[in-house]
UniProtKB/TrEMBL annotation:
<keyword id="KW-0479">Metal-binding</keyword>
<feature type="domain" description="CHHC U11-48K-type">
    <location>
        <begin position="35"/>
        <end position="62"/>
    </location>
</feature>
<protein>
    <recommendedName>
        <fullName>CHHC U11-48K-type domain-containing protein</fullName>
    </recommendedName>
</protein>
<dbReference type="InterPro" id="IPR036236">
    <property type="entry name" value="Znf_C2H2_sf"/>
</dbReference>
<dbReference type="InterPro" id="IPR051591">
    <property type="entry name" value="UPF0224_FAM112_RNA_Proc"/>
</dbReference>
<keyword id="KW-0862">Zinc</keyword>
<dbReference type="Pfam" id="PF05253">
    <property type="entry name" value="zf-U11-48K"/>
</dbReference>
<feature type="domain" description="CHHC U11-48K-type">
    <location>
        <begin position="5"/>
        <end position="32"/>
    </location>
</feature>
<dbReference type="InterPro" id="IPR022776">
    <property type="entry name" value="TRM13/UPF0224_CHHC_Znf_dom"/>
</dbReference>
<keyword id="KW-0863">Zinc-finger</keyword>
<feature type="region of interest" description="Disordered">
    <location>
        <begin position="67"/>
        <end position="101"/>
    </location>
</feature>
<dbReference type="GO" id="GO:0008270">
    <property type="term" value="F:zinc ion binding"/>
</dbReference>
Amino acid sequence: MDDPFVVCPYNFAHRVHRSRIQAHIVKCQPNYPELDICPYNATHRVPKLEIRSHVLNCPSKNAIFPQDKPPKLTGSLTTPKPILQKDYLPETDPNHEIWDD
């Protein structure tokens, strides 16, 4: 039940477990006419005339490029106030020299 059957793209009479379809396609491919390979899923084999419509409507395309895009984050960036030497070096320090001025 965890591994459903899928149909071979070369011979629709061939039903294969989904986990074995890639190996089956390699064996079945030499016996049938050339089919184009989908750029989104290599197990999708489509006739040359139908490849364009398949690529536009491929179900695997949504897994790679989801329709719902993450929301844009908005906010304002501020430049932090510079820390000057006189702000963190106490005047009681014997080596007190201020180079910021």
